């Protein structure tokens, strides 16, 4: 035995070393995967992960050296991911309620804090009830299948988030895809869908690649005219859009016309994890009976619940944080436009700096990091061909100096690479 162990150790196969599965099927799979990975590299669409060695905040330490980097690519819109009160609430919840529930909600995975958070979410959005999920991806995966049958129809914006697209794929309703924010096309599809029992229009409230906001007033008007329900995904709106940060429906004055809201706890609301659906009570009751990601996945850990609950308290006490983020967004957008850049979208903290060329976006993002500014370039297939960009995300915890340094770095790098004259 010792001899086999020594041979294994010499071959690098000691205890803890990865074991490669043997057999021709495993070898065939390995070859296929390696070739697929090579194709992704060859297509220039390889996504690598930069390792952060500090908290999520306006300034970061990157593993391997980079310190004091200014972070402009988090969805930490309100800066609550490292807010001292949010962290304290998580620690208290961890100590009082433990690490986790080892169970789904309906078996023994519901604690008082889960019910309190659901009640708080419903109150925040002024809806009847809410249900928690492990993520908004799960909330989107669960809702359409539970709600819609082959007798019904769902009408979806072509640029909706991948999780909405996947959720719709899972349901058996009739599917209509309308052109991005195109109300004429939506109307045509609504007319076509009159033959079905129920119609649900599904849209992102704010679209994360372009920073543009769905024309909810017009969508709700069409929905009323053609007897449809409206569903919005508010991941990039909850907590900061609208006078009180309630989201796109508040911003556009249609809170009483949107039936269902899905959103995340993993962005502005503390940034830990978790998602939810909020809307009419019978819908939430039905989701507790039928929604598969809810029925077959573990409860949210208490520390995560504690973070989100405190984030909502802070937002319900005051809208000062959201207003400070809006002012900083305005500062960045106007200074960049004055410098000669085109920024897509309007008034949203997602500020895509439009460059067109994929290589240009990638080298400029790299050069920005050399100047201490962390931003990410996006190109095809994440965005359409010829529409490459660097996406900048503004947070309430950026200082005016951070914003100005970012604009200065863009100006230098843009001139160097010919994006600015
Ligand atoms: N919907 C939208 C519009 C998103 O941007 C995201 C996250 O990127 C999700 C859903 C998924 O949210 P979560 O991270 O909570 O799964």
From TrEMBL:
Keywords of this entry: Acyltransferase, Pyridoxal phosphate, Transferase, Transit peptide
Known catalytic reactions: glycine + acetyl-CoA = (2S)-2-amino-3-oxobutanoate + CoA
Cofactor(s) named in the record: pyridoxal 5'-phosphate
GO molecular function: glycine C-acetyltransferase activity; pyridoxal phosphate binding
Pfam families on file: Aminotran_1_2 (PF00155)
UniProt domain Aminotransferase class I/classII large: residue ranges: 69-410
UniProt EC number: 2.3.1.29
Leader peptide range in chain numbering: none
Record's GO cellular component terms: cytosol; mitochondrial matrix
GO BP terms in the entry: L-threonine catabolic process
Similarity comment: family membership: Belongs to the class-II pyridoxal-phosphate-dependent aminotransferase family.
NCBIfam families reported for this sequence: 2am3keto_CoA, PRK06939.1
The name this protein goes by in its record: 2-amino-3-ketobutyrate coenzyme A ligase, mitochondrial
Originating species: Chloropsis hardwickii
Gene: Gcat
